[in-house]
Amino acid sequence: YESDPFARLDTTGVGKLMKMAVALIYVSPGIPCIYYGDEAGLEGGIDPGCRAGYPWGRENTDILEFYCRMNRMYSQNQVLSRGDLSIIDYKGLLVIRRSLGDAIVTAVFNNTDHDGVYDGYIGKVIDLYTGEPVEGDVVLGPLDFVLLLNLTDR
User: Fold this and answer.
1) How far apart are CA 85 and CA 67, in angstroms?
2) How many contiguous H segments (helices) and E segments (strands) does the chain have?
């Protein structure tokens, strides 16, 4: 796809990589931009295959639900749209921290082929995507990520 700047991200067989790329978009500065059909798992390739019609009634429900949850998470946490940004290499993991006042979101990405461990959070945190509390080390499998919301000052 290197020669076509509009080629769609391949969603076939790379669900973890696609979800990690989307999560990276949502925690990065700026407004998340979604190419139509990506949220439904629309497959495509090099032009003109990258501009197929929306798959009405044939959406990939796993990917669609993922995008819906990411949108809710983004809209309910102003820190993701307005927060300060810091980027850290933590034991081989990519850590993106957004902070705004007392709100801190820490996104941890493992873009490797082996497990990674993140133990760099302080205080009480929840997994922002699932809403579940996090205790102890966070073990991330290959091509995995976690979004942590700090609850220390809330």
Assistant:
1) 22
2) 3, 8
Using only C-alpha atoms, what is the Rg of the chain? 16
**Given this model, what pLDDT does residue 27 score?**
96
Q: Please, are residues 53 and 8 in contact by the beta-carbon 8 Å criterion?
A: no
**pTM, 2 dp:** 0.84
Alpha carbon distance 135, 80 (integer Å): 23
Close Cβ partners of 143 (under 8 Å, ≥ 6 residues apart): 16, 17, 20, 110, 111, 112
144 closest CA partner among 112, 118, 122, 121: 112
**Distance between CA atoms of 21 and 111, rounded to whole angstroms?**
10
pLDDT along the chain (154 residues), means of 10: 46 73 94 88 77 87 93 95 96 96 95 93 89 93 94 61
